[in-house]
């Protein structure tokens, strides 16, 4: 494959970009960046399908884009690396400088009404599309609550970044971060359902709720919102990580 000086190429089916940054978070998550092709466009909330390969052959995995869309230089992704699946093993071996192929952005997880206050609820790597949404909304002065849960306080992707953003945009960006097994500065020990229930009085009237995480987590959160907090179903939007 002939790549230009930025190690980026695009044909009718796939883009190919170079890995430019890798960050491992306590062996639980991996954050990586690739060069963003100049003609690659996406909306916050969308995902891409990566073409991967191992000794068993070619396979595909879909991951939500975690980037700030204003960043025209790179695309960022957050992946859970627990378990022994093919995808996990591939990402654990990833090295800076390698070339990876992916398709155009896809998906319909989007903000329905920018005028309404928004509550984002994310679990683990489900923070990826939520992070992209947040950067899209902060400059619009949309009122945002983020409830973000992980198993360990020491393994929370983008934790410091969200804390810093909540200070910078304190008038309209509030966060609540919870961890099931640890606590630390700005992180409360507990589960995400308790965090929702305990902070429901802070959610603004007419808020829309956007949820992203495992299928089990999103279902439990949806039930909590509908049955305990009495949120109308048409105010809840879900994407499974």
TrEMBL record:
Database matches in Pfam families: FAD_binding_6, NAD_binding_1
Coiled coil: none
One GO MF term: oxidoreductase activity
Domain of life the protein comes from: Bacteria
Gene3D superfamilies recorded: Nucleotide-binding domain of ferredoxin-NADP reductase (FNR) module (3.40.50.80), Translation factors (2.40.30.10)
Residues covered by the FAD-binding FR-type domain: 12-112
Name of this protein: FAD-binding FR-type domain-containing protein
């Amino acid at each position: 494959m002939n790549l230009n000086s930025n190690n980026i190429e695009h044909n009718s089916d796939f883009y190919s970009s170079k890995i430019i940054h890798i960050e491992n978070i306590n062996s639980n998550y991996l954050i990586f960046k690739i060069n963003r092709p100049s003609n690659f466009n996406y909306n916050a909330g969308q995902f891409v399908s990566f073409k991967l390969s191992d000794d068993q052959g070619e396979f595909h995995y879909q991951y939500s884009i975690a980037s700030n869309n204003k960043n025209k230089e790179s695309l960022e992704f957050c992946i859970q690396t627990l378990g022994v699946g093919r995808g996990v093993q591939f990402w654990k071996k990833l090295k800076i400088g390698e070339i990876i192929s992916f398709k155009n952005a896809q998906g319909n997880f989007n903000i329905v009404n920018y005028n309404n206050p928004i509550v984002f609820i994310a679990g683990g790597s489900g923070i990826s599309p939520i992070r992209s949404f947040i950067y899209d909304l902060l400059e619009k002065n949309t009122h945002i609550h983020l409830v973000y849960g992980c198993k360990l306080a020491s393994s929370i992707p983008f934790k410091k970044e969200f804390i810093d953003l909540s200070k910078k945009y304190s008038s309209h960006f509030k966060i609540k971060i919870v961890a099931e097994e640890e606590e630390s500065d700005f992180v409360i020990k507990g589960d995400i359902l308790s965090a929702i229930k305990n902070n429901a009085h802070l959610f603004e009237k007419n808020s829309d709720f956007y949820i992203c995480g495992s299928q089990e987590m999103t279902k439990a959160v949806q039930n909590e919102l509908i049955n305990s907090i009495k949120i109308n179903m048409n105010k809840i939007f879900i994407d499974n990580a």
